[in-house]
Amino acid sequence: MDGPRGVVFRDGTVSNAVVEFPGSGTYTLRLLANDGEREVFDDVRVAVQRSGSSGTLVPFGSTWRYFDQRQDLGVGWRARTFADGTWATGRARLGYGGDGEATSINAGPSNDRIRTAYFRHRFTIPSAAAVTELVARIVRDDGAVVYLNGQEVFRISMPEGTILFDTFASETIGGADETTPVARTIPASLLVDGDNVLAIEVHQVNSTSSDLGMDFSLEGVIQPTNQGPTANAGADAEVTLPARLRMRGVFADDGLPVSPGVPVFSWNRVSGPGEVTFVDGDTPTPEAAFTVSGTYVLRFRVQDGILAAEDSVTVVVKPGIVESPGLTAIPGDPVRLRFGALSGIAYEIRYRSDLTEGTWQVLQSVPAGPARPVEVAEPISELRRFYQVIVR
N or C: which end of the chain has fewer CB within 10 A? Predict the structure, then answer.
């Protein structure tokens, strides 16, 4: 009833049907029971999710570039493309004051400490779309503002408003808080394929603070590498006009990338003498309608947003004899032949003088068109003739 296209019921006529879902999303399914006189239904909602695994993108103790030279760097230093090659490097924890620093940075004189220290770390993400959640953990003393690819993602122990080089932190961090990580969720949508940059500015609470420190980690929920879908258009088939054939496309997909999380299906005619109409052609199992006999090649395609697969099937459509609405001969000179043409179907009126042998000859071809009565005048030269209407 609702949700992504492509749900397949293996047998929709039983109450405990097996349902195949094409990918992630929320689906509404309906069970309907009918006893021939009355019917009743009930709906159920099914949420299908693709789960990932937690992974560390930036561990505590990573190596960072840092700038501790008492200079106001403005805002340009936050950008992903900022050239930080001249900055010093060191492993976290970075800072001064004796709180377990792995790298000691410039503190300045005791009565005029550095107000702000700048830190940058570059890390690589092969596929940003594969990371669906990000959790940052920061150890800071005193306040900090964190940027990801140039965008502020959170601040901690800092005042609201514009942060300047000489802005003091809003609270003093001491005791166990100096080494205790604080977690924050940040938007994974800020990630890009390839290089990503974290930029952190750490501020003192006053000009005589005895210590400053920073360490940081970044974890994400990471989906596995996207594998391309598979497509199987089903077995070759043979039908007789007027022809409608249920296609039996089969596919496999890993639900990646997470967006869209569900593949897109399509059917099209590769070759054949007439047009093919697909009802629900954006599902694996549409109904294909043919109006002209011949051999057709149909293609089933599955596309997951990045990768695609396709397969073809051959359908032989044989001409059929119309039994209803039927062919009527109206006596006279000439004899008039009449039948009702159905919408969208082409016909041939054929004849021969012997019912059991001989070649059927084409009297007249009737092109496909709207539903209508068709009448053909036929002057008979033989003693008798037999006629048939063939669906082409």
Answer: N
